[in-house]
Amino acid sequence: MRLDWLARGLDDVPTFDDWLGPFEAARLATMRFPKRRAEYRLRRWAGKTSVAMMLGLPLDPDALGRVEVRTVPGGAPVAYLDGAPAPVRVSLTDRSGWAVSTVSTGMAAFGCDLELVEPRSAAFVADWLTPTEQAVVNAVTGVERDVLANLTWSAKESALKVLKTGLRRDTRSVAVTLDDAAQAGWHQLHVTATEGPVYPGWWRRYGAFVLSVVTDRELAPPGSLDDPPRLTTAQPREAPIGPPLPPA
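Predicted structure:
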């Protein structure tokens, strides 16, 4: 099974909207706040680009308009091609002006999450991490603590996407274990759910960001659709904030 990923930033997204499909355009039209609109367009640009590349389609607006990444009940993204479900699976995440899309032609379930390596308070660690995870994070200081706290949170978010619950589920009901194994620059991890299943995954740091991918079966690390990956030189940037658009 092939699992790939790519990243795109706010500056990559066209100013026009003719690359959006009808369902995407209708969803965007319901969003009045500039920040929410910008982040939605960014995620769709990354998702549609990754699906098109996986399917061997051109990346011009007409071809991308054939691809849609719709949101199904529960919040998960599903890829469509010419109005029918596409033969790929996709997971989306965004943080600080960058979006990542993971995509696969296989049947495995997977989720990805991108986080900024930033300070996390003691309250955050106590509220959202298990006692064992808290001990691992609190055993170190400085940037190393920031990396571990955000990596642990990222892996939880990725696993909750595999479980199709998102943050509706208690984040302490999934426990992250970081392993020593590494491959092609990625480091292995496992996430154990309270009901028993163990979900394997991979993580990697890119400058100011940490990226995790969790799957429902053992897989090789995801391959980048870009060479080199765009996250290698990515700089955090916030989406624009302004007054809401007038009602349609």
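Summary: The chain has a mean pLDDT of 95.
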